[in-house]
Task: inverse folding
């Protein structure tokens, strides 16, 4: 089974556990809508790739880690799209969850997805209970306060948010968790994998800023120009278009350099390159050729 | 240290971990405001009492379980008070979190509290890693979908929600988790403790319905008459005032009968009685004397 199939299957199993005949149907629909169809699944792909590079020995735990990371990413998108934040009616070219199910159900779907992520990790613990505490701690720090996604998003409610910190919390933290969780689920020290996640997370944020600035809504699958309209820290506003492109290219190189010596080293570098190309506005990158 | 002090200390330690000098200050304030000052802390008291009755041997894990249960309760209140649900400007006699910090930060504070609950459990795993999976699974099921708090709340967005199921998910599930988590954190089988949590949860919901119907906002610490105004399943609307009082008394008796044979049996029955008296409108209960 290739990585993409493993991820979709793990997500399908997790989402199915939120459904039951005598449960509120709109919530179940909203949870499913928030997860499928997915985007690039960049974070769980990274988790699987790192686990493989670390000599994966508990595939069910790796699958759970990958699914949990993606469920938390989906939860953040569902909440981020709400009218009190981005007020985005579309996501991945479809109605956003609140556009399809209403604000109350969308808010609850985000909550339920956060909970589902941790439940999914807990279920995998039968395989290796001694890895669960570190896995949950690492994932939780990436999404909560003071330095996870919730904190990153909360900077948008502060005057003059520090650009670097905003980016690290809102996007970088979950990429760091994606790499580290891959190592933990394989029973390895996650420390050496932090730098790879850090550079990739920043690269993705800059790529997203570039898309927000130059793509059309159709290409991006969601409304564009929001950062400028909302006055948010943004690499394009900060560095100009060329400066942001240069920064993105530097970050992709840094990420490739940050892959630790491991048996899956080459495969991982290739994944990093491909993911970078997939997300960045191709015509802007010199290295895209 | 008595139960109340243990709970406040465990919550203070958890909340402090969401604070940092270079983190967004409003979010930290909102998280703290959502947890302190607390209400009756009925659920974590129950967790501690059950753990003691089960021969508690890992007090740090019990503290973490109690704190996690209360953090999730607080998260549900923060989200429940938002304009898209109860639109409540006050809670425990103070401004609700969104009234004090705005809707975006309140929404994120709820998210961060959910995450903090699981992080708190994970940190306690060093004491007994083999108990963590069951603990997190039990707690997660009580707050997510298909049968936890998120599902209970989502029934409010469905036509003609089933009263019993709505009540069980929105309130009962976390009481069940509170008793079961107490047993798990003490290394015991949680099964025999389910019934106690179930009856208590339903008793609390009926008590809350009675308060909503007859108390003043000042006594209740939050707006009253919301259930009737919003057409929600409600024991008073369903059974009448006297019928609801009779049901509450029956549920309190059922709860006392459901305390399993254990060394802390008598202490637990007394706690159940006291908690019931504390929450119910005293002048309505014959057994309050």
Result:
């Amino acid at each position: 089974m290739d990585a993409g199939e493993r991820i979709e299957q793990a997500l399908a199993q997790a989402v199915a556990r939120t459904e039951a005949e005598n449960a509120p149907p709109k919530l179940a629909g909203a949870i499913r809508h928030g997860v499928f169809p997915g985007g690039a699944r960049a974070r769980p792909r990274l988790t699987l790739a790192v686990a493989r590079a670390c000599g994966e020995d508990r595939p069910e735990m790796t699958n759970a880690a990958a699914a949990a990371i993606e469920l938390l990413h989906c939860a953040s998108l569902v909440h981020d799209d709400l009218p009190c934040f981005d007020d985005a009616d579309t996501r991945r070219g479809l109605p956003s969850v609140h556009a399809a199910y209403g604000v109350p159900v969308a808010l609850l779907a985000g909550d339920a997805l956060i909970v589902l992520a941790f439940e999914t990790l807990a279920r995998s613990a039968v395989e290796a209970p001694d890895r669960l505490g570190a896995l949950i701690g690492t994932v939780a720090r990436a999404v909560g306060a003071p330095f996870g996604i919730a904190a990153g998003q909360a900077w948008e409610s502060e005057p003059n948010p520090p650009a670097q910190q905003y980016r690290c919390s809102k996007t970088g933290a979950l990429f760091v968790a994606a790499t580290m969780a891959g190592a933990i689920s394989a029973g390895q020290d996650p420390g050496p994998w932090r730098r790879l996640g850090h550079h990739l997370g920043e690269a993705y944020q800059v790529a997203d800023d570039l898309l927000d600035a130059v793509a059309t809504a159709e290409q991006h699958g969601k409304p564009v120009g929001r950062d400028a309209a909302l006055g948010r820290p943004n690499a394009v506003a900060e560095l100009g278009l060329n400066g942001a492109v240069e920064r993105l290219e530097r970050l992709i190189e840094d990420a490739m350099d940050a892959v630790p010596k491991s048996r899956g080293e080459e495969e991982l570098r290739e994944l990093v390159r491909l993911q970078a190309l997939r997300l960045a506005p191709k015509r802007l990158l010199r290295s895209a050729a």
